[in-house]
Amino acid sequence: MFGYPGGVVLPIFDELYEAKIKFILTRHEQGAAHAADGYARATGKVGVCLSTSGPGATNLVTGIANAFMDSVPIIAITGQVKTNLIGNDAFQESDVTGITRSITKHNYLVKDVKDLARIIREAFHIASTGRPGPVVIDLPVDVQSATTEFVWPEKLELRSYKPTYSGHPGQIKKAAKWIENAKCPVLYVGGGVITSGASVELLQLAEKAGIPVTTTFMGLGAFPGTHELSLGMLGMHGTAYANHAVMESDLIVAIGARFDDRVTGRLDSFAPYAKVIHIDIDPTSISKNIRVDIPIVGDAKNILRELLKYIKKAPEVKVWQDKINGWKQQYPLFYKNDEALRPQFVIEQIYQVTKGDAIITTEVGQNQMWACQWYKHDKPRTWISSGGLGTMGFGFPAAIGAQVGCPDKLVIDIAGDGSIQMNIQELATAVNNHLPVKIAILNNGYLGMVRQWQELFYKKRYSHTTLVNPDFVKLAESYGAVGIRVTKKAEVRPAIEKAISIDNTVLIDFRVEREENVYPMVPAGEAINRMIGGMA
Amino acid sequence: MRHTISVLVENKFGVLARVASLFSARGYNIASLAVSETLDPAISYMTIVVEAENEKILEQINKQLNKLIDVISVTDFTKKDHLDRELILAKVKFAFKEKEKLEAIFKKYVGKIIQYKGNTAIIEAVGDQAKIKQLLTELNKFGVKELVRTGRIAITH
Which of A253, A390, A531, B89 reaches 20 to 30 Å from A438, CA-CA? Predict the structure, then answer.
């Protein structure tokens, strides 16, 4: 549990004084929410955060919205003023259930201690089943102090909440036929595959049918990035070959993905020749943006297992695979490998030193997109980044949460000099709890992604995107962490190796080429095969 | 096009706000909304008339409502045989010599004049959308000063 104390949660904190619950004190409630989120993504378990009422609760809001957009199961417990003061504009009162209604899967205001056990049971159930998401429990201080006989409800009775897990057999059979007869099929895979734990089944399907796989941002790690059938990520900063493959495909098999605007680009010209099979546990994701020919509602793992049974022969895809391999050779990911210290090089080096075995979190912006492109994500739950909401300041507290959940893993936050400063105070949390998280700042002295858009679409008018930064090395040291500065290419690998060898929180300040851009790039609102940049 | 949707919900604190904020957050328009308890006091019944430009939006409204934890079921009446009714209350201004003419109107409709106050009549009427519309056209010839409508309620048959 991650959190921060305050007036109306004193009864809970008094219990935590000697409870068996491991509690991590962050330095800001937003950090606590992101840490719970990172913990949940890394472990597959529910993450929990706790704050006081009013500002404590509103500071959690960004973290809750972030978990909501990326379907992450967290429980946020917020203190609330006394039941008889609710609605009175009491000190540190805010309408938490009202504020969080549209950014939670569900929320509760507990008015009677007799309901508390049931509500906690329901909250964990709702957060972690179906399409997961955050649940808020708003808990008035007098309810915290009240006593009742403890009865843990063994059975849940939620007549209005019954997620569908097994897919419609007729639809699955039909999908199998379509796959067998496809000429240019593509598997388009999202975070739902990771949530469902369906990576093994996905690999079996791809190999059995010889279908290339592109993943969304959230789906990175669901399919091995090093596999010959991997096309990497698609969309705005996806690979050219993934985007070409989708655009020329005759059958898209979407699994646990939602055809987000960063993926589809211009909707009316997206994948014009493709029929679409869409497997998703959330019916609202189906036919929301793209018309779907075979919808299959249910759990990806169950459905893929069934689908594998019905596929008797592999489609004839030799010509298609050759075409894709041609694109791979023609349009590889590219950056200028010269003397300059380029951010892509830093990430490639992190990948090589860690052999792809680290948990990577990121901040938001260029650092994040380069981390998508240049680190090959092979395993599920090792890529932790803010997708839907795009929350700057997410990566570092999320790394703390991931490290708490996976104490034996190496956890690295790939950061920008802008984002890292949005939750830099969590250095104290990491150091005080002996969490040896590594932070790699790709420091270009800009809000890089915004600057890139200003360069490309606003005539290089760099309005308020130049940053004057603190000395990050000294800053790390003042918190009791280790700081390393890197200015030359030759120093990159030794610095990463040194950071990993140190049993402490380490921050590396990589002074990278200032105006490097993320390519390829699909300008907003364009068709996804109309990419700019990134050619050798 | 307007659709009549009925939603059975758990009668819990905040459920109306959940439904209403879903509509506002996703940019759907509510033309009318009627809420009441059912035979089972733990369940409430909402009849919502929505403005949906196309089938895709209607499908999303339906799915998004179903996704709310407190929603038990959603029925789109537009696709089913159903009866719908609405109750209106109105203050109608009339010239004294037209009183009989005003009273005559209510022979054609389910409704009546509840009371007179000077040259104003308070009337009530029940009917489906077409009937109510017709009635209002006729009453407007006199002058409707104030109008209150319950919004549509519906039931399958």
Answer: A390
Parent domain of A430: 343-511
Nearest CB partner across the interface for A97, out of B14, B25, B60: B14
B23 at A interface, C-beta within 8 A: no
Does the distance separating the beta carbons of A98 and B69 come in below 8 Å? no
> Which of A145, A177, A195 is the endpoint of a domain?
A145
Residues A440 and A501 both lie in one domain = yes
B30 touches chain A (CB under 8 A): no
Residues A131 and A34 in one domain: yes
Q: What is the pLDDT of residues A50-99, one digit of tens each?
A: 999 999 999 999 999 999 999 999 999 999 999 999 999 999 999 999 99
User: pLDDT by residue (tens digit) across A443-499?
Assistant: 999 999 999 999 999 999 999 999 999 999 999 999 999 999 999 999 999 999 999
Domain membership flag for residue A524? no
Confidence of residue B53 (pLDDT cuts 50, 70, 90): confident
| Chain A residues with beta carbon closer than 8 angstroms to that of B13 | 109, 111
The fold of the B2-79 domain, in CATH, is Alpha-Beta Plaits (3.30.70)
Say whether B67 and A284 touch across the interface (CB within 8 A).
yes
Quote the number of domains for chain A: 3
Average pLDDT on A508-530 reads: 94
- Comparing CB atoms, the residue among A98, A102, A282 nearest residue B25 is A102
Domain segments of chain B: what residues? 2-79, 82-156
> Is residue A162 in some structural domain?
no
- Best to test chain A binding among B69, B70, B71, B72 (most A CBs inside 10 Å): B69
Name the closest residue on chain A to residue B10, using Cα atoms: A160
As a whole number of angstroms, the distance between CA A407 and CA A327 comes to 41
Asked if the structure places residue A365 within a domain, the reply is yes
Residue B79: pLDDT band (50, 70, 90) is confident
DSSP A62-110: HHHHHHHHTT--EEEEEEE--GGGTTS--TT---HHHHHGGGSSEEEE-
Q: Does A91 touch chain B (CB under 8 A)?
A: no
Verify whether the Cβ–Cβ distance A160 to B69 is below 8 Å: yes
Residue B32: which H helix or E strand, with range? strand B29-37
CATH code, B82-156? 3.30.70.1150
Q: Answer yes or no: do A491 and A347 share one domain.
A: yes
The mean predicted confidence, pLDDT, of chain A is 96
Tens of pLDDT, residues B146-155? 999 999 999 9
Q: Given an 8 Å threshold on Cβ–Cβ distance, is B69 in contact with A283?
A: no
Let me know whether A97 and A177 are in one domain: no
ipTM score assigned to the predicted complex: 0.88
Closest A-chain CA to B12: A108
Q: Is there a single domain that holds both residue A368 and residue A314? A: no
Q: Is residue A63 domain-shared with residue A122, that is, in the same domain?
A: yes
| End-of-domain residue from the set A145, A178, A212 | A145
CB–CB of A468/A437 below 8 Å? Answer: no
Count of CB atoms situated within 10 Å of the CB of B81: 7
Whether residue A350 sits in one domain with residue A498 = yes
The predicted structure's pLDDT at residue A535: 64
Mean predicted confidence (pLDDT) in A125-152? 97
Same domain, A115 and A175: no
User: B11 to each of A113, A200, B50, B150, how far by Cα in Å?
Assistant: 20, 43, 22, 20
Report chain B residues whose CB lies below 8 A from the CB of A101.
14, 17-18, 21
CA A213 to chain centroid = 19
> Does the beta-carbon distance from B60 to A284 stay under 8 Å?
yes
| Chain B residue numbers touching A283 (CB-CB < 8 A) | 63, 66-67
CA distance A108 to A77: 10
Q: Is A147 on the interface with B (CB under 8 A)?
A: no
The answer to the question of residue A536 being in a domain is no
